[in-house]
């Protein structure tokens, strides 16, 4: 009897780089951890995951080394990005999507030719929809606030290294997929982030539904697209008859 077919997967990835934006900066490590739909209809982590160092083709600035502690001599003999990216990003035909925490960062380096134009799930954007009461939405704060079932504390360390960060993100993704649908996570990921609370100014820390109309108007021209999108969404809610005041968590799922 032939072995059962391997399941389709969503591949969670994390990159460590020399800086914030290509082409001035480049990848120096990629890590991955897969999540798959089980026979019982529940999503779970799948396989061991992995990581590989990448030669960025330039020195790693000290300010960046201080974050991930990857040294120039450690990547000197590593393969270049174009030699490892497709294999790591595109386990075709099993991969149905890619995922990352704040996926817009990874998407700068993981371009459509390297990913076969994959769809992306941004677990940062989805966390704000599903768990708006979290004190913060960073990968690590979510880890310690939620305490995902089954996570191996040591395997998720050190932070700011590609595999441990992908491993932690995979637990968030697993739980998101078991609370919502893949289609819904993809939809949320395609639009700017919906921020549960005001980030700055006199109303800092308040929920958007709590601030006055005059304050809300000031955010409509903000340079940050997430702030603008959130303000526009809240304004539309009020225009449709919604009142100023705390909204319940289920309301966020309907936006």
* CATH C-level name of the largest domain: Alpha Beta
CATH superfamily of the largest domain: Ribonuclease H-like superfamily/Ribonuclease H
Order of helices and strands: EEEHHHEHHEHHHHHHH
Per the principal axes of the C-alpha atoms, what is the gross shape? globular
* Chain-averaged pLDDT: 94
In which order are the strands of the major sheet placed? 3-2-1-4-5
In percent, how helical is the residue content? 25-40%
- Work out the helix count: 12
Strand-residue proportion: 15-25%
CA radius of gyration is: 20 Å
User: What summary fits the major beta sheet?
Assistant: 5 strands, mixed
Low-confidence stretches: none
**How many domain modules?**
2
- Tell how many strands the DSSP assignment holds: 5
How far apart, in Å, are the first and last alpha carbons? 48 Å
CATH architecture of the largest domain: 2-Layer Sandwich
As for the CATH topology of the largest domain, it is Nucleotidyltransferase, domain 5
Question: Which structural class matches the secondary elements?
Answer: alpha/beta
Organism: Sphingomonas qomolangmaensis
Pfam family, one: RNase_T
GO molecular function, one term: exonuclease activity
InterPro entries: Ribonucl_H (IPR013520), RNaseH-like_sf (IPR012337), RNaseH_sf (IPR036397)
